[in-house]
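Issue 218. Parser rejects a valid record. Input:
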Amino acid sequence: MDWIASQINHEGVKWWLSIGWTLYVVVVSIWILLQRSAPVATLSWLLSMAALPGLGLVIYYFFGPQRLKRQRIKRLRSRKRSKVRASMQRLRERMPDGDQRLHQVARLVVATSDFPVSSATGMRLLTGGAATFDAIAEAVRAARHHVHLEYYIYEPDQTGTALRDLLVEKARAGVTVRLLIDALGSKKLGRRFLKPLLDAGAQVARFHDTRIGRRLRPVINFRTHRKILVCDGLVGFTGGVNVTDEENERIRSDAYHDVHLHVQGPTVNWLQTVFMEDWAYALEKEPAQLAVDVDMELLLPDMPEGDIPMQVITSGPDSGLHAIYRAHLAAINAAEQRIWLTTPYFVPTEAALAALTNASLRGVDVQILVPKKSDSALVTGAARSYFDELIRSGVRVYEYEARMLHSKTLVVDENIAIIGTANFDYRSFFLNFEVCLIGYGPELNRHLAHQFLNDLRQSHAVSYKSEKGLGRRLFSSGARLCSPLL
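Output the parser choked on:
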């Protein structure tokens, strides 16, 4: 009798657990479906949640797709609109007659990111952290009014300390210093390190500060992955280089290999706009009030139009248009001669993978450069799971062997080039706040193409079915299944 009673109780527990699990799956499924994410990502989350009852709910709450609302500083954006038509006309004049591809890409960026075509009077591609930090130090020393910095990773190491001390010097001299750091990426930057800056009068803000309770969710998943530096509104920097010894080859022989861009001219106005809107958001200030607090003439100085057509692109979870993702796809689909892509994290969407393979199959020279070993084994495994399909379609895949490759560039034909902070993966395309510069014409394209060929000298071509062994193939396939979650 005791045995029968125990069996009945045991069956009852199983029944209630089954009911509970079923209700959990139904509730979570409704929640996830209402987000209207990509089908692949939705299915990945549904399977993960079903396999991890309870715990999965917590994971989805913190890491699942969310939408953020941010206001734009209309006064900043409208101030330079009068220059837009002249820049667009210059683009038309410089491009071959009848070539509508560039104009279509430019219009797409305007529609999705609301940044018009602008121009640069000068630009310099900086290879490596050492060259980048030298150029940044030179620009900061020359600043007379303000220095604005926004970084995902700013470490309190030798490189970070050197830049901090320079900023302290400028702040004491009366230059306005505003430093915006991501709360997660720069989590090691504590009060002790920042105290000299604050004592000198500099302003420091954290993007999605964890101390603000209502932002506990977005700080974990939604990061400002942007790297922006603007001095006096006249010169600007962006690219892949963070402020850390890990990217300074003078300090570490195994420093990341990366590139950064130094620009001058009207394009800097739009990098400034990106920074100021991020600054207002981080401080929880009303954009209208911030626009009153700052001097527009000094933030957005009038500059002569340059001969290099350029356009700023931004994207983030505050917009469902995914401007950087669309710009990459538009550029790839417009290619007629070559597509040379460099990225440290290659986790393409199905549409991006199809665009690359389609281009190769129609005769375009498609080459992809990735690190042999990235700083994430899971991302490396996921990337390699795509190699067979790429190579089968005629795409040439290379792995950079010298160091960890961290560059993020795209070269299309001879007149489109993109450089910035965005990796070719789900996180950069759909979750992070990112910024890129797209150059129209031969100038930026030529520099990035030259850099790509130089990097190939320290790389090896991946052969078909390069992943040997059942264990490694299973790991890569499993990592690929997690692609929408990486």
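Fixed in the parser; the record now loads. The chain is about 45% helix and 20% strand.
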